[in-house]
Amino acid sequence: MKTVLKNIFDFYINASIHVGFATLSLVLLTYYFSHLKISYAVCGLVFFGTIFSYNFIKYYSVFYSRQKQKKSVYYILALSVLSMLLAGLCFLLLNRTTQIIALLFGALTLLYAIPVGKLKKNLRNLSGIKIYIVSFCWAGATLLLPLLNADYVLNTDVLAKFIQRFIITLLLILIFEIKDLEVDDPNLKTFPQIFGVLKTKLFIVLLCIPFYVLEFFKTGYYANQWLVNLILVAVIITFTYFVNPNRNKYFTLFWVEAVPILWLFLSLSIN
């Protein structure tokens, strides 16, 4: 029984379902803070699109090699195809502007995984820009898509939310980079590879300041959001303190990845 549960949990993590719930949580936060009616088409697009895109990025080379794989990989392939179809169906239900923006993010995902040009490099392998691409896509997909589909007027408040969303994604990626320091290709020029673990941790702590302060520049402020974000910052700093290259993989793949889910839970519970 223990083995079965572990296999299910591993599939949940490896098939990117957990990260799908993380991005979905950020979409739901957008609707919550913007006082908008939830669009299940947008939620479905982001959730299933995340599962498909992350699996595409992680397993593109595996599927392309056409070598025999473990059964679980074929299950992930089946889930990815299903997610692609469901994301496509949700895409058709969006308005034209949202569809165009969604296609731009989709194109970035393809370029992130598929080598292009004479150098045969993808965006993932271009030194130093990986974290900014991922942060931009997360912020855009979880904030701009819901707002644009609701014909929400983009203003300075949205800009503050976008920067805040960009920062929190960046924070989580930097924690991942510390954990993956010993396995990442040196050519990636990740933040810990260039500046070391200690300076990266200090940078994460410093980034928590603008993330927290930006809350007070947003309209529609919730009275207890200062407490929610303070707890969130404390959790991120705690993860930062304990992360190292020798940590168990679930430390980042489950616990750190769950920070957006925690943000949604705290916002709904405390406000």
TrEMBL record:
Keywords: Membrane, Transmembrane, Transmembrane helix
Membrane-spanning ranges: 12-32, 38-60, 72-94, 100-119, 131-150, 190-214, 226-243, 250-270
Protein name, entry field: Prenyltransferase
Organism: Flavobacterium agricola
Lineage per the UniProt record: Bacteria, Pseudomonadati, Bacteroidota, Flavobacteriia, Flavobacteriales
